[in-house]
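Is it possible to get an amino acid sequence alongside its tokenized fold?
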Amino acid sequence: MDHLYPLPGNIPVNHFLALPRPDHGLAAAGTPDTSTLAAHDFDVDTRTGFMPPRPLARLPEEWQLWERALDDARSSRLQLGDKLSLAPEDAATSERWRDQVRQLPILPTDNLRRSEVLLRRAHHVLAWIMHFYIHSLPEYVNEIRIPPPVTLPLLQVSAQLQLPPVLTYSDDVINNWEFIAPPASAFPPRPPALDNLRCQTLFTETRDEEEFYLASARIELRGVEALTLMRAMMDEAFLGDATAIRRITTYLHTLAGVIRELTTILADVRKGCDPDVFYNVIRPWFRGADSDGTRKWVFEGLALDPALREPTELSGPSAGQSSLIHALDIFLGVDRYSHANFMAGKDRDGPTPMARAQSAPAGPALAATPATPAPTATFSSAPGSSTVSFLDRMQSYMPRHHRAFLRHLSSNPRPLRTLVETSGDSGLLEAYNAAVSALKVFRDEHVRIVALYILVPSKKARDASGKAREEGAAKGTGGTDAFQFVKGVRDQTADALLKPGQ
């Protein structure tokens, strides 16, 4: 798993990221045999897990017009277009910036395709520009028209990455951090210190927004030990003898301790992010089309590239897109319980950063063609079923290498839960339940924060304004009741606990 993220021009020719980008079966029917793939093929790092050891900070000169447009949006301190007390001068500043975006040339993306790192940075920059553009528009604009200088390159880059052309968890968290104090070596051998992180890009330039994203980043980094433990347990399960059972028992107790630390990090979001600031000032910026009221998003200029199609997945970022929590659910065999009854009602985000990540599918069939700008995921939650859980759908918003990792994990021929059920070892059963219980407690905290960050401020907004736009304000950005969603997932996680003799 020794893949690194050097600057694009310094990637060795035989480096994983410099090779033709495999789709790991994601663009073809059927389930690929990934059992022989090295871990680095899944873009998982020993020090930072699903996070890159050092995200690219800026694109090369060829695409600096995009970087400068994003810089200008941030330095201009653009305001939300539906802000109740929006000053005329702020509205004028926003319109000047949007006009500059409309006047940009349509930059070619061909040279971005040589590097996955470049593509990821391009998706980050263009998606942030698009959200600045959309959410700074006046509230009376009923049809949002995204100009061709943003539409074409964003959809082309998204097609290459097999991601939707909208802000994702990867854009807000995974590829949105840097060191406060850079380490002495280019790529330190240990995970970064959790207090040595800051964000690259913000909408509001507030500490609240930065702490919101960094809470997720810290959970991802602390979760690296969980990935290490999972790998060790899979190796032991391959042997399955008495020694292996004892080791797995110890590893599970350690895993439970790691998950408890993730809960503490999650709870600490309260220290840096005020609920009212989150709800009223931060959250509106990363709404996707699913939660933008009745306003339709129109991508202009599609006819200029016949390979592009109208996007169908535009839900925006959610920590439900975090591969770490999905991986924990799959590994523990909790996924069949934790989101069984939540179908494709397009619920998007709870208020917490990482904790919105709820669970993972047992291995749905994913299909996306490289020519599709917003890859449509085809899921099957049951034979002959056309429904899909919200959490299954979120896999189409993950980096495709991470989707491949989850597929690989879900196809494990020696599942941990089956081993626990068949071993008859009471110590192993107790250790397994300790890990599941820790995951349930993690979701207890999530439920509390949803109430604090969504339910309470939404009620305040409704009572204060009485406006129709506050109707349904307590819902997730995908339209489903956020509190009921996370509460249901929490309750069903508890159902995964095993009873003696079960």
Remarks:
- The CA atoms of residues 67 and 125 lie 7 Å apart.
